[in-house]
Amino acid sequence: MVLVLVEHRQGEIRDITFQMLNKANELAEETDSKVSAVLLTAESKDFVEELKPWTDEILLHKDSKYENFNSDIYEQALTDIIEDKNPKLIMIGHSAQGMDLAPSLASSLNLPLAPNIVNLWWKDDDLVTEREIYGGKVNSEVRFKKEAPYLVTVQSAAFEAEEAPGLDANLVEIEPSIEDSEIFKKFLEYVEPEAGEVDITASDILISIGRGIEDEDNMDIIEELAEEIGADISGSRPVIDNGWLPEDRQVGQSGKTVTPKLYLAIGISGASQHVIGMKGSDTIVAINKDPDAPIFEVADYGIVDDLFKIVPKLADLLGKEN
Ligand SMILES: Cc1cc2nc3c(=O)[nH]c(=O)nc-3n(C[C@H](O)[C@H](O)[C@H](O)COP(=O)(O)OP(=O)(O)OC[C@H]3O[C@@H](n4cnc5c(N)ncnc54)[C@H](O)[C@@H]3O)c2cc1C
């Protein structure tokens, strides 16, 4: 059995859940086993319907304790479920929630943990995982010394989840034991980003700007293009360090991981620390005057030219079309 923890926040199942379920289905099929999605929630109805086509089974524990994520509560519930079901593999998202939960879960169950994996496959009944090291410059294969169950946390956008595989999950209600005396953390409040701010992780079209823009005064040509095509604007680290864009617009290793339908990289060289955060985009278009810029290795389409010539022309052309 492959167990996948359903991640949800503010009434929505996070994309990472479907990405993990997609991969879990593939792995389960290869070993003739099944996928169970663990749903710990205060409100279950819409979640169950949404999950049904993605998994063989939903293990549901409905309890008001889950209203807000608390790793102390999740850890107790999962410990119980894992001991009971003895899955071969447990998948948790490498998100703020997963990073809080997985290490202590691994420790309390004495499970081997491979964090932040970007791929995994069976080899002679053993699990092999792939992890990025040295800031994404090198990928390493990691195997477990111990026997299953294996625990992994999965990098956002490592796997696709465009279409549900059309399953019809069995719903199984469970009652894992949770001791209030073992809950040491307390949820205080959920802080929403201020109204009007852009969440680049949710953008469909992103124009990302790099050091090639040279000066903050030149940003207006990017803003014009963004307006013509309905894009949000993000950037590489030098642009953020220079204060030309707010911090929450940085894409990459020390910024955000984005997966828009279109990522337009303008004047960005394509350093590994940047690419790690955008390579999951559906279509990548790069504009750079250097034909050897590494960004062209990940781009689906490339324009080798001066951005100051190309960007206004693009805005003009696309503006006429709209
Ligand atoms: C620990 C660590 C974490 C990091 N985290 C991040 C991160 O999260 N995100 C991130 O982006 N970086 C990060 N970096 C920095 C990263 O290594 C690169 O330095 C950075 O991504 C480079 O940004 P850039 O591509 O905008 O600039 P540059 O590398 O300077 O590239 C500018 C590009 O613009 C092109 N160009 C210049 N003028 C024009 C023109 N007129 N027309 C067309 N093209 C032009 C050039 O050919 C060049 O390719 C990190 C580094 C470290 C060490």
From TrEMBL:
SUPFAM superfamilies hit by this protein: Adenine nucleotide alpha hydrolases-like, DHS-like NAD/FAD-binding domain
Keyword terms, alphabetized: Flavoprotein, Transport
Residues in PH domain copies: 1-63
Pfam families the record matches: ETF, ETF_alpha
Gene3D superfamilies: HUPs, TPP-binding domain
Biological-process GO terms, alphabetical: fatty acid beta-oxidation using acyl-CoA dehydrogenase
Protein name: PH domain-containing protein
Homology family: Belongs to the ETF alpha-subunit/FixB family.
GO molecular function: electron transfer activity; flavin adenine dinucleotide binding
SMART domains: ETF
